[in-house]
Amino acid sequence: MTLIATLDNPGLIRSIFEAISKLVDETYMYYNDDGIVIEDMDASHVGIISARLPRSMFTEYARDGDPGRAGVSITDIIKVLRRVKGTEPVTLSIDSYSIGIATKGKTTKTFKIKCKDLNKSDEDKQTIGKLIVTLEDRFTTSFTMTGDIIAEAIKDVTVISDILSIGSSKSENIVSISAQSDVGDVEIEFDASKTGGEEGIVEATIKDDSAGMYSVAFMEYFLSLVSISKTFTVKIGNNIPVMIRGTIGTDGSIIYILAPRVEEDEEDHDELDDVDETSEAIPDGELGEEPDGE
Question: Rounded mean pLDDT of 65-88?
Answer without folding.
Answer: 90
